[in-house]
Amino acid sequence: MKKLALHWQIIIGLILGLVYGMVAAQSGWGSFTTDWIAPFGTIFINLLKLIAMPLVLASLITGVASLSDLKKLSRIGGKTIGIYVGTTAVAVTIGLISVNMLKPGDKVPVDMQEKLQLTYEQDASKKAGTVQDIKDRGPLQPIVDMVPSNFLNSASSNRNMLQVVFVAIFIGIGLIQIPSDKGKPVKDFFKSLTDVVIKLVDIIMLMAPVGVFALIAQTINKVAGDNPSQVLELLGALGYYMIAVILGLITHAAITYAGLMKSMTNMPLNTFYKGLAPAQLLAFSTSSSGATLPVTMERCEEKLGVSEEVSSFVLPLGATINMDGTALYQAVATVFIAQALNIPLDIGAQLTIVLTAVLASIGTAAVPGAGIVMLVIILEAVGVPSAGIALILGVDRILDMMRTVINVTGDATVAVIIAGSEDQLTIPTK
Prior knowledge:
mainly alpha; Proton glutamate symport protein; 18 helices
């Protein structure tokens, strides 16, 4: 009997989690779900996060060192960063067009606004407090933060991924500079470590259907609690806002990514999406591009024909600085909150949103909910009260799942493009 493909296993787990979550909410099984179902989702995410850091370190060192000279590194690095920044700017622009066309902020009843602000006031103030620490820093602090004083401290948290990326590239450059015979033992070590981690991915993915089931069930449990009618009420009030975000995300994937793939590679879109599907489904269920990174790398190399040299450089970098979905959502959310609060935003303010969202997306932690913190910075940059995030917190988790899919899809798209431009793309024939 033919084994069911991984993406179908994950889809089944997702659907069963959705069904169970709705039944649990209707039946008042919230405590049971939290105590006996959710832990399996937590274990699954923790396993993926466990291997994310060593994978980024080992694969990036291997990838940079394999480039053999700094000219090749600067060429690939320049193209990668250029496309990442360009697609992010396009994503923000699409988000602004979507929200200005639909004007979802004008459609939220005043009584619902007050209810949402009251319900999520405490969460909103916590996020604003976190942002105050960021605002107090100097203009060059992000660059300072990128360079760690102690690598072991950096490697202790997935939130420090940008520091790990810096260290890995730094070590890789050092390996290029020394004679190949002296660097070979180090290269072989990190190459073997990369192979081991990729094999661990295969083992962890055996748990994927169960993990996805638990994650989706717990997500519904958190949103609905023991009263599913709350969800319907929330979706009714913020439906247009969600449509604006989702429309923007779909448009970005359908036009920007598909356009780039068609114009810059020979890979059929159905081959691309079929090969990437498990990573996309995992991104949806975990809301973390960092946790999904090991699977994204595996799918790009084994199913999309991206060389290990390109994959090990482009994808870890993308998981750190390429957040198209997050940036688009931030643009929509900013304008939505301004509309709901009757604060007009002129062309200058919306250009500020584009610039700030692009810069904020670089270095946004690849973990669930990190985009909200950056959103507060954008709101204050255009003079919109940060307390307004209380209006959107109720549906943020749902949208976080969707925008993470776009983040991961964007990373894979650029990996395929770069591999094609470097003649390191082997398009699957099946």
